[in-house]
Amino acid sequence: MGDSRVQFSDIYLATEPYIKSVGQVRIGTSGIGWKAAEGETEALKGLTIPNLVASSGMLALQRDDLRRLQWQRVARGYGLRIHMKNGTLHKLDGFTADDYETLRDAVKQLFHGLTLETRDISIKGWNWGKPDFEGTHMSFRVDNRPMFDLPMAYVSNTNLANKNEVSVEFQGPRGKGVKRKGAPDELVEIRFYVPGTTTTASGGAEKSDNEGSERGEENGEKAEGEEEEVSAASVFHDTIKERADLGQVSGDSIVQFPEILCLTPRGRYGIDMFSHFLRLRGKTYDYKVPYENIQRMFLVSKPDELHMMFVVGLNPPIRQGQTWYPYLVLQFVRDEEMAVDLNLDADEDPQRLEGKLRSHYDEPLYRIVANVFKGLSDKRVTEGGSFRAYHGAQGIKASLKANEGTLYPLDKGFLFAPKPTLYIAHADIASIVFSRVGASSATGKMRTFDLKLNMHGSQDYQFSSINREEHASLEDYMEEHGIKMLSELSETTAVSYKGMDADSDGDAGVAKVAGAFDAAGLGGSEDESSEDEDFIAESESDVPEEFDDKYESSGGSDQEQ
């Protein structure tokens, strides 16, 4: 027969979106191969496409692994869809209309038992049709023709929005070579309205016939043909969850942490750690989080010294409906210990984890979780700095608007948790202002004060209801890190303690600060002021104080979304 290979040039590998790598396709008796052109392998770095060797830019598909070949119209002309027997789908784009006959004859000649099918796309524009699941993809068919495809490998979450509505959320493009900045708009969520009900076999009917007949005789009921009526939306939802697992949650996990308390988003989640991503499994929501989405991590102690918080910063954030969560906040009991064995052989390259993870851990659970996150994501974990509050805690209790939480002054920034979780770097702070430090009320001095952070070119943050005992430690912290402090009376007048002579006594230091106020025209003598007996001081904070009769805690209203 001679050399019966067929080749095509300027063909794009379209298995993954946003990849603009062009190469050459060769079809022979052994299968189908794609080789990236010279200088095109850079776009493939960081990708984990089955059968692709990213370093050499070679995609090799063996003849015995091919199940189906389809020809269809695509944005780059015409494309070849290659269905594998293991459910994987590969795409090659950039063919011309004249290539169809050559490709059809080559498939017929070289691949016995396979034919090149023509896949006609529906262009009616209808928004109702029938979903068809094939491998790791779902095709939405209108009038028995595919209208669009949804790759289940990109499903990050799915849930029942209501009785007949299923929401499907997608994650962004994967791979270190993929740049999101400047990329075109992409689909992040789609919702399907699935009316009606369907019948499915109940749990009892799945058991053996003998057990079913015995129960039927005892209860005087018929066990044969026992079915349960469920909504079609729930069946569709369960099918998507099952199919989505085929794309990414394949193989064994490295470690699993069951029932971890999550403060943001609220609920208990099981955490499954895989080679390149983690899976959060809750009662209502499931998430897939690639490790490259993890930007920073913090491990801090709560003021009660009984619990630890592990904060994970994500970009892009995870979503629950219209709510975005850029941080995961996990809470652990400090004294809870656990023995955990890691399945390091489940990783594609076990040598990659040498020196980063151990095969066995026997220590507090929060420490195990932090070490596993650190090893798999290759990101450092920032722990509480040298700051200590009045009672020795790492953080101080504060409120951001109506939300109570803990403010942690760290070595390079401020962390507020659990809700809303914020990280404010020192470099982004222009100055700070202590408010109501010496304020008085009808019953005496105020027990709390406010801390305002003036930012460079962004919105300012004001933390209120801070205990007055924490003022001295915060002031020392600001001075230690060189953060500019302004007076409450005039935010344009800086109050600095660095210029004070270390050997001078307290009265001299106070005199210098008072002189700074006088120079700004803010000073005054006691004779110039008189007591107003009809005046009753009130707090300038918008947040009610804890000792106020009208104070209502926001912690009890923080319900799971």
Uncertain regions spanning at least 5 consecutive residues: 203-224, 246-250, 492-506, 508-561
Distance between the termini: 67 Å
From the spread of the alpha carbons, the general shape counts as elongated
Largest sheet: 9 strands, mixed
Q: Helix count? A: 6
The overall average pLDDT, rounded, is: 80
Helix-strand makeup class: mainly beta
DSSP strand content? 35-45%
User: Strand order of the main beta sheet, please?
Assistant: 4-5-3-2-1-8-7-6-9
Beta strands, count: 37
Compute the gyration radius: what is it?
Answer: 32 Å
Helix content: 10-25%
Characterise this structure.
- By secondary structure, the protein is mainly beta.
- Strands 4-5-3-2-1-8-7-6-9 form a 9-stranded mixed sheet, covered by helices on one side. An 8-stranded mixed sheet has the order 21-20-19-18-24-23-22-27, with helices on one face. The chain has an 8-stranded mixed sheet with strand order 31-30-29-28-36-35-32-37, with helices on one face.
- The longest helix has 16 residues, at 232-247.
